[in-house]
C-alpha cells in the first residue's frame, strides 16, 4: 500500500488506461470510441512523464558548470510525450474526418449499424 501512495501518478495512469480501454471495448458510438482512445493516450503520456521525473533533479540545462548526469533528469521521456501528443492529435483529427464521412454515407455513428448496412450493400 505504501508504494501506491508514493507512485500515485503511475496508479492514476493505470486507472485512466483501464477507463479508456473499457470505453473503447464497450461503446458502439464511434465518437465515444475515439474519446476512449484519447483517454488511453493520455494515460500513457502521464505514465511516461511520471517515470521520467526524478525528485530533486532539474531539467537538463547546464547550470553552474555542473556536468554530472546524476544532477539532471532524463529528457527522453519528455521528448517521447511531446512527440506522442503531436501524433495523437493528428490521428484523432484524421479519424474524426473519417467518422464524419461514415456518418454522411451511412447516417449513423453506431458501429453495429454501419457493419449491418455495409453487409447489405455488399450483397446487392
Keywords:
Cation:proton antiporter, 124 residues, Helix Hairpins, transmembrane helix, cell membrane, single chain, membrane, 5 helices, elongated, mainly alpha, NUOK/Mnh_C1-like
Short summary:
It is found in: Cell membrane. It is built from 5 helices and no strands.
Walk me through the structure.
There is one protein chain. The protein has a single domain (2-123), classed as Helix Hairpins. The mean pLDDT is 88. It starts with a helix and ends with a helix. The chain has 124 residues and is mostly helical. α2 (8-26) runs antiparallel to α3 (30-52) and α3 runs antiparallel to α4 (76-106). It is built from five helices and no strands. The protein is 73% helix and 0% strand. The longest helix is centred in the C-terminal third of the chain and has 31 residues, at 76-106.
The radius of gyration is 21 Å
Number of self-contained structural domains: 1
Mean pLDDT: 88
> What is the end-to-end distance?
60 Å
Number of strands: 0
Report the principal-axis shape.
Answer: elongated
**Element pattern in H and E:** HHHHH
CATH architecture identity: Orthogonal Bundle
Helix content: over 70%
The computed structural class is mainly alpha
CATH topology: Helix Hairpins
Major β-sheet, in short? Answer: none
Which regions are unreliable across 5 or more consecutive residues at pLDDT < 50? none
Q: How many individual helices?
A: 5
Share of β-strand residues: under 5%
The CATH class is: Mainly Alpha
Amino acid at each position: 500500500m505504501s508504494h501506491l501512495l508514493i507512485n500515485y501518478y503511475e496508479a492514476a495512469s493505470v486507472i485512466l488506461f483501464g477507463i479508456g480501454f473499457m470505453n473503447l471495448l464497450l461503446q458502439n458510438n464511434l465518437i465515444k470510441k475515439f474519446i476512449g482512445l484519447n483517454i488511453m493516450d493520455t494515460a500513457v503520456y502521464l505514465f511516461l512523464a511520471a517515470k521520467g521525473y526524478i525528485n530533486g533533479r532539474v531539467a537538463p540545462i547546464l547550470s553552474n558548470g555542473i556536468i554530472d548526469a546524476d544532477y539532471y533528469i532524463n529528457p527522453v521521456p519528455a521528448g517521447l510525450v511531446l512527440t506522442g501528443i503531436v501524433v495523437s492529435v493528428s490521428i484523432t483529427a484524421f479519424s474524426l474526418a473519417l467518422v464524419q464521412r461514415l456518418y454522411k454515407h451511412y447516417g449513423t455513428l453506431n458501429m453495429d449499424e454501419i457493419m449491418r448496412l455495409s453487409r447489405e450493400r455488399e450483397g446487392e
